[in-house]
Automatic annotation (TrEMBL):
Signal peptide: 1-17
Name the record gives this protein: Protocadherin beta-8
Source organism of the structure: Eudyptula minor (Little blue penguin)
Topology within the bilayer: Single-pass membrane protein
Domain Cadherin: start-end pairs: 16-122, 123-231, 232-336, 337-441, 442-551, 566-672
GO molecular function: calcium ion binding
Amino acid sequence: RAVALILLLLCVSGMRAETALYSVPEEAERGSFVANIAKDLGLTGEELSARQARLVPEREKQYLQLNQHTGDLVVREQMDREELCGQTEPCLVRFEVLLESPLQSFRAEVSLTDINDHAPVFLNKEIVLKIPESAMPEARFLLESAQDPDVGNNSLQHYNISSNDYFHIYTRRRSDGRRYAELVLDRALDREQQAEVAFSVTAVDGGTPPRSGTALIRVVVLDTNDNIPVFTRSLYKVRVLENSAEGAPVVVVSASDLDSGTNGEIAYSIVQNSEENLQTFKINPETGQIGLKKTVDYEETKTYEIDVQATDGGGLSAHCKVEVQVEDVNDNAPEVIITSFTSTLTEAAPPKTVVALFNVRDRDSGDNGRTSCELPGEQPFSITPLAADAYALVTSEALDREEVPEYNVTVRARDEGSPALSASKTLLVRLLDVNDNAPTFAQAVYTMVLSENEPAGTSLGRLSATDADAGKNAGVRYALEPPPPGAPAAASFVSVDTESGTVRALRPLDYEEVRAFEVVVRATDGGSPPLSAQAVLRVVVRDENDNAPVVLHPPPDSSAAAGELVPRWARAGYLVAKVVAVDADAGQNAWLSYELAKATEPGLFRVGLHSGEVRTARFPLARDAARQSLVVVVKDHGRPALSATATLTVVLAESVAELLSELGSAAAAPGEPAGSLTRWLVVAVAAVSCLFLAFLLLLLALRLRRWRRSQ
């Protein structure tokens, strides 16, 4: 069962970056319990589920799984430590636990503990050693190393050989911790007695139970060769740049042999001590130059230790070590890894709101692996460090969707190598609208004209208001504001379509009753809470020629006997009478003109076009009839023009006596009631006075009504 080892809590900018180290054996079965994350974080299973906890692995493959309901961290896929980490210790599987509401990041590592699942293996099942019979006791001979991919106590620990009369084995340890074997000669060999010695060698690891591997050693006893090769140095230390080309020279080793002939000829070879060395290096057997078989990578292996053997023609050999240090070059660009990202953000988000969490990793070391982050350009975002290589992208100022609806935020990571390498990751952040803009009318006051008598439903025009917001926050609805108490109910004259803003008449209007009115229109958006704006709608009623002129004098029901009196000695231009008329319309529809339509003597009288005054056009003649009948037509200037007629009776007399005689005859005419002249004169004067007074009262009432409407 895995045991939680360390729980480190860091608080940065309101978010926590946790590093927890757990342990689990490699090859653990699927579903094996590792740890309880909820317990370590101080949360219950319900809280963990409510905050939508999830794992973000560092590797592409997900080896672990989190149960949101219980908080248990379990194995999802079996993990082979040797496959994941090779010889690297410790072998860590890193991941992050992300929580929502609020957004928090907890870092964790699971250490894979090695199990003894590999036995030591000799690459060659038979090892042949050629040893001259002149070799002295205590001489040492290097053996090929066995390979064990396990680490720690489970790796190769010691070598054993089977019982024989000539050798024992000694296990030694290299600087990198690996163990190798040397054969030690116990007593001198004699080729004539025994030309070959065979025995087995066993490599044993430290596991429980231990595992082992066996190979056969054949020692071929050579005839005498007095001198062995001697290297100029027992240890060669060299440096090579990573990414050096295949075949690049590494170092030249050199050995000499005092023997002559074939016994003095030296051949160089690399002694098998690891499969990786054989795959990486090669040696020229004649010159001793070591070169690369393939490129080396500092991030994979930093140091190589090579055993080189020099063998003369007589079979004697010597050994030296070559230690190759790989120097790092800046060949890895930083990597930006997004662990959490919110692609949509409300424009009302306050500063320091977390948009994304990300890590920056560089596989290089030293300055080449030291990184920094930046945001190129000017944008309302900033980067907040959370841990050594963890960062948060946060807002740095207030946002406004109406100004910038979306941002392409580029996160650039740069290392400190020479030349510096960089990598970028672009995040598209879209802003969600909030209702922060009220509708705006195109005009503060709208003036529309409506002809009187237009039927209900007539369109006067359209109001227009816009809203800078989006979606339902930008939807505008129109409505008329109710009038204040005591004000005219102008809202009963027109209506406004709630969607389009079209203004329509609710009923026909009479210019003579309503000439203009104003209403307040409110535009309201669809936000929550809604915002609104107002505009004034002024409707002007346009007059139509729907009223004919009305004759006030002479009255239409006046008696024909009540005529106008004109002396025969009257000069041209003598004022006979004045036709008085009014028109209830306005403007040119109320402009009146007068014409003489019919007369007993057409040339005797004329009518003023605009004044309506009836005057004599010449001196009355003796042949002119004493009684003249005139018909005056009163017209307005509307289209079509409307008119009315007035009939005047004019009496021509030479003297007062004749005048009285004419009036008397007029009174005694058939069909006329009898009466005295005085009575008719009184009636005529009273009628004219009443009509004139009524006309004055009408004008006064119209003036008063217009004044009150303007107020």
